[in-house]
């Protein structure tokens, strides 16, 4: 039997023992290995003083797949929103509007709240601007939102923000222009509105973007009246909507690293595993990250977990999506620590001889703005630094 096949068989037996019990080799597992056949060894980044580095950085994320439309400001983050409604009316009403025989007498937009980041009682106010260029839900991120073209005049009034619903009026002349443009198949200048929080805002809300019921959907209600003939109320729903969250790196303890959803702040983590023989087989590797609870901030609903991926290029923070075992490994909360099985990633480092480290991201990155603060590689208390424990097998 070849050396590689022998090691694979032994590794399979040991792995069964690991997954059925704990992260450390059991007496049963050691007996199955046989002391005269293989070396079973453990290396611990804390106990064995492995070199490590960590850092965090900001990138850009497209939120078009999010279940929420975000609006507001909180700490380092600002969320703005774009909405374009699909408007269509019967020909009879269209002709009355075009002939100036009917008029829009009320234009009300309702945004049902599904998520809150920050104190729910904190203030939120915003301005609403008319967009004047074409866009889709995937057009803008924090990198290019400055290229959006809009008229910097607030077209809203009667803004009301409650725990469950945000409502406001837009100018009737704007909604009338949309209806007339929709009636004219040649005119396609319905570009929608841009919602921007004011400087005094202290929370971010996430509005439900899709729902099976009209009461929990973003909607535009227009009241159209033809004097002496009819008063008609019609409801319209978004054709396109998009959120853009801009922000800086949050101010945290210099010993911490940061992961934040929505704003797309991620961390990189690297361990020196050169002490492990290149031909070793990794039986188990677990990563432990300690939270700095005093610096964290979570929304009203969230995934309290992190995702770790193998980095194929640490300079560009490019994760390895070639295999599900190397991409988005969950680190679950246990007490005040996030812990996960990163065995496939460590094995990849050894077998490829290319250790670029780990990428750490927020689980549910598109569903909120959760801020995770974690003790980094420079923490003065060594026991709080990221910890990697690896159990591996070599042939004697």
Quick summary of this structure?
The chain is mainly β.
Q: Could you characterize what this model shows?
A:
The chain has 396 residues and is mainly beta. It folds into two domains: 3-59 and 264-395, no CATH class; 68-247, no CATH class. It has helices at residues 3-20, 27-33, 91-98, 172-183, 343-352, and strands at 38-44, 52-58, 68-74, 77-85, 103-117, 126-131, 150-151, 156-161, 165-170, 193-197, 204-208, 219-226, 230-236, 238-247, 256-260, 265-271, 281-290, 305-313, 318-319, 329-334, 337-341, 358-362, 371-375, 387-395. The strands form three sheets. Strands 3, 4, 5, 6, 7, 8, 9, 10, 11, 12, 13 and 14 form a twelve-stranded antiparallel sheet that branches. Strands 1, 2, 16, 17, 18, 19, 20, 21, 22 and 24 form a ten-stranded antiparallel sheet that branches. The longest helix is centred in the N-terminal third of the chain and has 18 residues, at 3-20.
């Amino acid at each position: 039997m070849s050396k590689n096949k022998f090691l694979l068989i032994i590794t399979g037996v040991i792995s069964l023992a690991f997954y059925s019990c704990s992260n450390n080799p059991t007496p049963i597992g050691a007996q199955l290995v046989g002391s005269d056949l293989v070396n079973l060894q453990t290396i611990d980044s804390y106990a064995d003083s492995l070199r490590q580095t960590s850092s965090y950085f900001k990138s850009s994320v497209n939120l078009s797949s999010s279940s929420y439309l975000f609006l507001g400001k909180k700490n380092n983050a600002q969320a703005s929103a774009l909405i374009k409604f699909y408007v269509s009316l019967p020909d009879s009403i269209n002709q009355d509007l075009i002939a100036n025989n009917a008029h829009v007498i009320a234009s009300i937009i309702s945004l049902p709240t599904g998520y809150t980041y920050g104190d729910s009682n904190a203030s939120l106010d915003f301005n609403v601007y008319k967009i004047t260029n074409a866009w889709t839900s995937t057009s803008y991120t924090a990198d290019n939102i400055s290229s959006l073209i809009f008229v910097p005049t607030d077209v809203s009034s009667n803004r009301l923000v409650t725990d469950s619903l945000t409502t406001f009026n837009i100018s009737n002349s704007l909604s009338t222009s949309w209806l007339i443009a929709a009636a004219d198949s040649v005119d396609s200048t319905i570009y929608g509105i841009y919602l921007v929080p004011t400087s005094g805002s202290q929370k971010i809300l996430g509005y439900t973007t899709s729902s099976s019921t009209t009461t929990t959907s973003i909607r535009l209600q227009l009241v159209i009246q033809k004097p002496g003939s009819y008063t008609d109320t019609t409801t319209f729903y978004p054709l396109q909507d998009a959120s853009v969250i801009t922000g800086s790196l949050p101010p945290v303890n210099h010993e911490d690293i940061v992961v934040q959803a929505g704003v797309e702040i991620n961390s990189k983590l690297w361990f020196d595993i050169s002490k492990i023989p290149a031909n070793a087989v990794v039986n188990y590797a677990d990563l432990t990250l300690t939270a700095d609870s005093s610096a964290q901030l979570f929304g009203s609903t969230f995934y309290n977990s992190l995702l770790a991926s193998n980095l194929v290029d640490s300079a560009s923070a490019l994760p390895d999506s070639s295999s599900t075992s190397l991409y988005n490994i969950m680190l679950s909360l246990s007490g005040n620590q996030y812990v996960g099985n990163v065995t496939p990633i460590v094995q990849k480092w050894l077998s490829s001889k290319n250790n670029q480290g780990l990428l750490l991201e927020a689980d549910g990155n598109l569903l909120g703005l959760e801020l995770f603060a974690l003790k980094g590689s420079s923490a003065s208390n060594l026991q709080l630094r990221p910890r990697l424990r690896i159990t591996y097998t070599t042939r004697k």
